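User: Thanks for the earlier help. One more: Cell shape-determining protein MreC. Can you show the sequence and predicted structure together?

Assistant: Of course, both are below.
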Amino acid sequence: MKRLFVLLVLAAAVLLVVTDRLLVPLTPVRAAGATVYGTVESAVGTMARSFGDQERLRSLERENATLRAGLLSPRSTGSSSGVPARHRGLAAHVVGFGRGQRVTIDAGAASGVQRDVTVLNADGLVGKITWAGPATASVSLITDAASSVGARMAGSGELGVVAGLPGEGLRLSLFDPHAPLAVGDEVVTLGSAGARPYVAGVPIGTVTAIESVPGAAGRTALVRPAARLTALSLVTVIVPEPER
């Protein structure tokens, strides 16, 4: 039975060849086959290019994170700044918004992310890491009610603290009650010991209104965050280099 089947297949093949060459060309059949093959080949090529594009995108994001971290500067304070020694910029994406003023990123301890390190984007300070799992981490935004960031005025160099005001932005409190302060002044991070949780020179925001608080020990103002905290996507995490 099997032998008969093989013979029938061979006979059919010979018949097709003879018909194609001597009687009726089978161009439509070959064309159909070529179309199917071409479609599959095109799909495979598209998938290969897609994977290649994704890898190039990841590479560009890593370079972007490094450059962004390296360009940190206090703008007008007259001091040099940048990524602290033995630190690097790590690219990550915001993948979720948690309760309160918190977001989740797609990088964790496996990539070197630790608690109490700086998170920023191309516009300015975003917040700090408050929890790090193996592959994800939680970021507390600077607008969180519990947030407190040491600050420096980019123009005058006056020092103060920026606190979070959920739903409103930020409040700046300068230590000197007679310090110069005006709408439009820019505020940057003062920096923390060991660069944790905040590195120096990252834009925090811009003064939008001067407050008048009777009996206040210092000058206060409302500040608009430099980073669009409600539309976060790609961010940079400043992480310590692994010990060698």
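User: Great, one quick takeaway?

Assistant: The chain has two domains: 2-67, 71-244.
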